[in-house]
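1st attempt posting a full record on here, be nice pls
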Amino acid sequence: MADDLPILLLTYVYLFGVLGAVEGLRRWRGYPVDFTRKAIHIAAGMCAWILLGFRHLPTALIPPVSFIFINFVSYRLGLFQAMETGKRGNLGTIYFPISFSILTALLWTQRPLLVAALMPMTWGDALAAVVGQRVGRHPFRVLGSTRSLEGSLTMLVVGWVATALPLLLLPGSPFPGGNGVLVGLAVAAVATLVEAVSPWGVDNLTVPAVSALALWIALQSCGV
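the predicted structure (as tokens):
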């Protein structure tokens, strides 16, 4: 597994570099935590693409598993203010690396599906929150959580594009061409519905899980 060490080092340099850069911007420009938190969220999710460089599953699991504990310590002690809301009980920053770790283990042999399963959460959810908070004019409440139609539409469209791209671009994808576009839309639609009813950061668990499930169902349906 020594051949994975350079990409492992690169992963940590990238993640801690993002944390440092976003924290610096927060202090310098005064960006609110709801913005910096989503920037970190996107950067962390894009590590799914870095995973493509690993050759061995045990090494690929080291970054997401380690960040379960790193994020827990940050949540308890407020180490990385750029990603902490300060709200007790919102464990979204811990749930995401848990989802990342589980999906990496389950989908290691189907890496286009691994990347695609993480994209609705990575891009769709993050930009849905930003759009909903800034231009959302049609709010709705489900199970005590407030969403907006504008935010949900953003998640659907952005999640669709972000999910379809790895299915279209990555070698070995079971859904090339038009199939990737259609499957990406179906995954994004299901993820959007689940995100709308998932409270308190739990969407960081439910959205990747349902995205992976939708991809698996599509795989079985196509007989691939």
